[in-house]
Structures are given as structure tokens and as C-alpha cells.
Amino acid sequence: MITSRERVLKALNHEQTDRPPMFVTLTPQVAAKLSKALHLPYEEPLDSLLSTRISHTKLLTYLGNDCVGIAACAPASKPTITDENGIITNEWGMKFRNAGLYNEFYSFPLANAETESDIQSYSFFKADDPSRFTSAVQTIKEYGNEYAVVADLETTLFETSWYLTGLEKFLMDMMLEPEYLNPLLDKVMEINLYTGKELIKSGADMIWAGDDFGSQSSMMMDPDLWREIFKPRMKYMFEEFRKVNSNIKIAWHSCGSILPIIPDFIEIGLDVLNPLQPMASGMDSLFLKNEYGKDLSFFGAICVQDLLPNKTPSEIKSEVKRRADILGKNGGYIIAPAHNIQDDTSVENVLALFEAVKEISN
User: Fold this and answer.
1) Choosing a second label site near 237 at 20 to 30 A (CA), which of 65, 193, 227, 350?
2) What does the alpha-carbon distance between residue 192 and residue 170 come to, in Å, rounded to a whole number?
3) Is 259 in contact with 217 (CB distance < 8 Å)?
4) pTM (2 decimals)?
5) CA distance linking residue 232 with residue 268, whole number of Å
């Protein structure tokens, strides 16, 4: 009997498996609805910038996930705090306000950054605080033999940086090149590179890095600007990850339409592309499999914008199986929603996704 971990590793090595593996992530609201419907205890999200990717593990493995997520959590010395006005501050100093489904940005700690000294004087947390990795180690100990361990490092460069400065400022400054820009990117890279290497050392099978470079219709920036600013740093990080474990699988998450830079991803050593946003321009599963399937595995492609919230369970099952037929041919596919499943999706439709995968037999 093949284990979930074996299924994932075979798929990522482009080998045919009994069925494609799956890795679903949920918003807390959906996890609460499912837990109630299935009469299971609700698991509170972990204290991490990436909490939706690493929480509700018991529920999700019960339903059929083949992967478990790990990430660094807030260090004990700098936990997430909420003040008397409801303003949430995380370990990076980013401030949020609870908006119901998600926390929305309230203010950006480096909104006025202009010089290198603005970055040098900023109080970053200690990346090497062991308490950041306690949850990851526990998860691997509990699940690592049976399930594939996915170390989540999304918001690797671009997103963490603009979370600190604000998006409009950062996009403008990528072209204006003020003094602070490269020191900030290098500091963010230093912290996230250390984090990723520690998660790999702890026993991860795949590291899932990423930044959203695409909008629904096109890239958010000129591809040549991306090649100048981000590609060299990504290449360096990939090389450093492989120094820790030469067999580590590297996935990159970028929502939206990112067709111009997919060949660049392959050039710098990417193994797995995520999330293949189905409604983004040009991100067609058949095209991507035919064009890049020899070089890349795929992870995602199940639509959370229309399919899961709006279609019937029968329609969902049919579409999931269709995507699996396309992307899972000769291995190379992890079935997953193209984002966390949102609260507009019914329990019945979430369960249809899991049932569809269980019904697939290669």
C-alpha cells in the first residue's frame, strides 16, 4: 500500500501513481464549517504570517490530504499582539485590522523608507530564534513518515518587502531605485533564506516559496524588471536550498498571469509551478502541460473563483477529474485549489473536491 508521502514524491519525479496526490488549504472559516459538519474538534490557526497553509492539519489529513504544511511561526520573543483598538502587529512590525474573512493592512512600518540607514536601523526579529521552528518540528515528528512535508515560504522577496513599505510605494521604487530598495530586498532574502534552510534541515520534502507577480490579466511588472531585481535573488536562494538537501523539490507560488517568466523559472532550477490560476489570462492547463510538462511539475489548477463556490458537486467532480487527466498524465501533478478554499464555498462542495480525488484511479 503506497503512503501519501510516497505518492507525492513519485508524482514530483514524474512517475505515474495510483492517483494524483492532493494538498488542500482552507481559510479558518471553512475549517470551522467542516469541523462542525464532521463532528471534529476545531483547530485554531497557528501564529504565522502563513497560517492558512499550515493549520487544520488533523482535519485535512482526515479528509484526504497527502501533504502537511509547515512554516516558521512568530518567535516567542515577538509574538503577534492585538492592542486595545484591535490593531494586530506581527513579528515583522506589519500592522493589520481584522476585516472578517482576512486581516487587512492597517499601516506599513517602512512606508517612509528612503535610505540604507532606514533599513539598518529597523528592528527586525531574530531569524535564528529556535521557537520559530517548534511547530514545524512537531508536525514533522507526528506526520513526516506517512505524509509529504511541504515547507511554506511564500512571500519570499517581493511580497514581504511591499508588506513592509506598501505596494504602491514599492512598485514605484522598483523603477526609481532609491537607496533603501536593495538593502531591504537583501535583508528580506537573508531572513527568508535562513528560514527556508532551517525548514529543509528539519525534514521538508518540498519548499514552497513564492511571490505574486501576476494580476488576473498580465504581470504586475515588466518582465525585464523582474529579471533584473528578482531572478538573480531567486536563483541564489534555489542554489542555497540545494546545498542543504540536493534532493529538495522547489515550488514557486505566483497567482495571476505569469507566462513571460515561466521559462526563466525553469532556467534557474524550479521544479514545481503553483497555483496555475485557471481564470488568469493564458494559464491554460493543457497548454502549460504540453509546453512545460517535461521540465515542471504542477500544483494547483482547481478554481476557487468560480468552480468551487458556484458549481454543483457533480460539476466539481467532473472538472477535478478533467484537470487530473490533463496535468497528471505521466505524473507531475499535485491536485490543489488555486488558493485557500474561501468561505463562499459550501461544505458539500469542499467534500466533493476530496471525493473526486478519491474516485480517480490511474
Assistant:
1) 65
2) 19
3) no
4) 0.97
5) 9
